[in-house]
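Appendix B, record 7
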Amino acid sequence: MTQNLVSLDLGAEDIAAIDKALDTLEARFARLVVLTPDEIRHLNKMGDKSEAFCREAAVVLEDNPKLIPPGFSVAELRQDITDLDLMRPRFLRLRELLAKANSTEMALGSDIINAALEGYGYMKMGGKSAGLDGLRASMSVRYAGRRGKPGNPAA
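Structure tokens (predicted):
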């Protein structure tokens, strides 16, 4: 195998520990929300520039409680800011971990497809046709529409 971007070699204990950690995260993050694309599209979004305004608005609202109608909760606004401040570093860590997971999944898939293609080429060169009919059929589906292009093993 000429390409080996990653080798995880995880044992049963590793998988069990990962699953337990994920169970814990799912339980602790049960209050997180999932927004639909339509909901996201219609939200007012706080960016870097508007965040300073929002934080200052919270201070001004706290300093002027008599001007706030009874249905408006400054305490809830303050709690949202506190929650955001607490969770941001954790969300960053999760995004970084997810990026590593995505890259590792891509690397594993690339290692697998490269090894399969390389092995298929060895079988073709060796004249061993036993079992290649199924592989040829799979290759024709995989590379449909790419026949004759350079580097196409199905060409």
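Remarks on this record: The CA atoms of residues 64 and 128 lie 84 Å apart. The chain has a mean pLDDT of 89.
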